[in-house]
Amino acid sequence: MDKIIIKNLSARGIIGLNDWEREKPQEILINIVVYTDIKQAAVTDDIRYSVNYRTLAKKVQAHAETAARISVEALAEDLARICLEEPNAQ
Predict the structure, then answer these.
(1) Shortest CA distance to 88 belongs to which of 56, 44, 66?
(2) Chunked in runs of 10, what are the mean pLDDT values of the chain (90 residues)?
(3) How far apart are CA 86 and CA 18, in angstroms?
(4) Are 52 and 4 in contact (CB under 8 A)?
(5) Quick check: helix, strand or coil at residue 30?
(6) 8 Å CB contact between 2 and 36
(7) Could you give the angle at which helices 72-84 and 53-66 cross, rounded to 10 degrees?
(8) Among candidates 40, 85, 80, 46, which has minimal Cα distance to 64?
């Protein structure tokens, strides 16, 4: 199994329980590891057989910036679900 790694993806969103944390967006730093098999994508040069990390990064970033979650754990669960919804992601 191969890994696609997205490191230090920055998003600005509301996260936290305290009133001051919910007043304005703060930086949320995201790191993702997605497992996939890239053999067919490598042979065919066709991204449909892999995980498009650009598309995935944009989806994750957009969600983190709009979710306004209270806990980091809830946001992490959301982001994991988004990753696993990608075709070919495991």
Answers:
(1) 56
(2) 97 97 97 96 95 96 98 98 95
(3) 33
(4) no
(5) strand
(6) yes
(7) 150
(8) 80
